[in-house]
Amino acid sequence: IIHTPAKAAVSKPEIHHHRRKQKLSSLCKTPPSVVRTRNGRGYHRGMFLGEGGFARCFQMKDESGKIYAAKTVAKASIKNEKTKTKLLSEIKIHKSMSHPNIVKFVDCFEDDVNVYILLEICPNHSLMDLLKSRKFVSEPEVRFFMTQIIGAVRYLHGRMVVHRDLKLGNVFFDPEMNLKIGDFGLATVLNPPYNKRYTICGTPNYIAPEVLGGKKTGHSYEVDIWAIGIMMYAMLFGKPPFQAKDVQVIYERIKRNEYRFPSDSSVSEQAVDLINMLLKHNPKSRPSLDDILQHPWFTSGPFPSRITTDSLKGTPSNF
Ligand code: ADP
After folding, report:
1. At what angle do helices 127-134 and 222-237 cross, to 10 degrees?
2. CA of 215 relative to ligand 1 center, distance in Å
3. CA–CA separation, 257 vs 229, rounded Å?
4. H or E element at residue 92
5. Residue 31 DSSP symbol
6. CA atoms within 13 A on the CB side of 136
7. Which of 268, 212, 207 is nearest to 241 (CA)?
8. Residue 241: which pLDDT band, with cuts at 50, 70 and 90?
9. For the ranges 19-28, 80-89, 92-101, 163-172, which has the lowest average pLDDT?
10. Is 55 in the pocket of ligand 1 (CB under 6 A)?
């Protein structure tokens, strides 16, 4: 997690790349071909899967041949207490999660140079990769994806966890094309009656206006509802609603709730109506997760019985 001059803990920008000072993940050396845990298990490193602001991810195979994703974090990048606390918090929160639409946490171990977080492998990439190759996603598919995402977020919020970094690049496909929410690097557990957090964090395009308000306003569960609205807009219209080259312009647009819908799009009015509800400036005016699923866009439109890997290549012919 890199600190920008504005002191925002900003996760890896997606779709539009902004210049960053230094990626902590660049400190991560390629792990050895075999990583041995303290209790003697051996994991064989496989191909590189991707990197975020903080970690690099590799395939790893256990002795029985089962394949996992290993998120590797260089110890050199976790020298200060704050970063250490954050990583431990990510591990603690992720470890306690068990839901079909959340990336499964398998194990955690270390060697001299890296900390390894072993996760369920999601070989079909993320929703962001799907959008990149497709440009737009059809309404029935978005309905299907949103239902799974909302199921996972309902589970998180029920356990008082706010994810705070929901974005297309953090929602992965498993081999069966079910969605799995990952990356708990910015997640936080709320302790009632103190249901607010004050740290400015997130990914520029997805940050809710109340997060930008910082100490004055505080933020809570509704930031995840906002991010669901950004994801829905991005899937249907091909880019996030507040997109701009300059991050400060993105923030200004978010604060003024300045977004438009392309006039040449065939997206339904019901979808537009739901997005407008999700992107309400006032967090209290946003719908609850149950309200979202009750919206006419969900209850009246076609809903695919399942999604196949064909969706990765193009709009399936029956949609
Ligand atoms: P960071 O905390 O540094 O942002 P991420 O959790 O986003 O790291 O992971 C970095 C990259 O690794 C992702 O963008 C993705 O390409 C890949 N990745 C992460 N988790 C998995 C997984 N479970 N299966 C496959 N690839 C993954």
Report:
1. 20
2. 30
3. 13
4. helix 81-95
5. P
6. 10
7. 207
8. very high
9. 19-28
10. yes
